[in-house]
Design brief:
Blueprint: H1 8-11, E1 15-19, E2 24-28, H2 45-59, E3 66-77, H3 81-87, E4 93-100, E5 106-115, E6 118-131, H4 152-156, E7 158-160, E8 168-172, H5 187-202, E9 212-220, E10 231-239, E11 243-251, E12 257-266
Antiparallel strand pairs: 1-2, 2-4, 3-6, 3-9, 4-5, 5-6, 7-8, 8-10, 9-12, 10-11, 11-12
Helix pairs in contact: 2-5
Length: about 270
Amino acid sequence: MPYPLNTPLGRFGIETPEEGLDRCVATIPAAGLLNPLTGHPSIAPLAMLVDHTGGLINHARRGAQEWTVSSELSLEVVPEAAEVIAAAADEPVLAIAHPLGRKGRAALGLCELSVGAEVIATATVRSFYITVPASLAPWPEGPGGSLPGTRLDELMAVGVGETGGAAAVLVQRDDPVLNNSVGAVHGGVSAMGLELVGSAVLNRDTGAEPYRTASLRVNYLRPFHGGADAHYRAKPIHTGRSSGVAEAEAVGSDGRTALLARVTAYR
């Protein structure tokens, strides 16, 4: 099922051919998308797909008057993921999610991501259950909207920010199309932003062999709103011969940290 272009899922070309209590399946086209900070092929769209598919399997188990809010996302990626995606440019990345364990006040969804017959990542999304919010944005009923461009920065409505130091920064502009049903930036979009700045800050030395993202771990602390001074920022924690670690945060338009993440990468 394709989504309207004036929704976060539609903008990134996500489709959901299967949705149920025991299994959810979704795809995203990821080839040709570059990190705006480095110009390198990016695996960040995998985070968008994981947030959707893993969150969907948790959402499917909600009870009456319950809604889900993502609290954690964890993504483990094989070293050759970017090459596999590029080699199959016409084939989207496929995610299959299943519930893991019992549903309580929270639930855990387990995802496997593949391109063709090759598995390139595994992931989990943890969601907790809240009472259905008093107001939810209406979901568009038919096709609509248009794409702002084809580059990843255009799709995400982000721009390169000034750092004045060793950090990497992307500014998150306000774009209602990128918001979820409660009016905050979609969790998959913000997870992508964190991976982009984390990867970029580890690859500031353009003459060195690049670090490849191996894992992304995200904690969702509060709703993240774009516009004003909203941004993603990462700083390096460790850059060694073979591995690098960066910490990243998403700071909302209110100046508060909304998400925290750690990116680990290897050469």
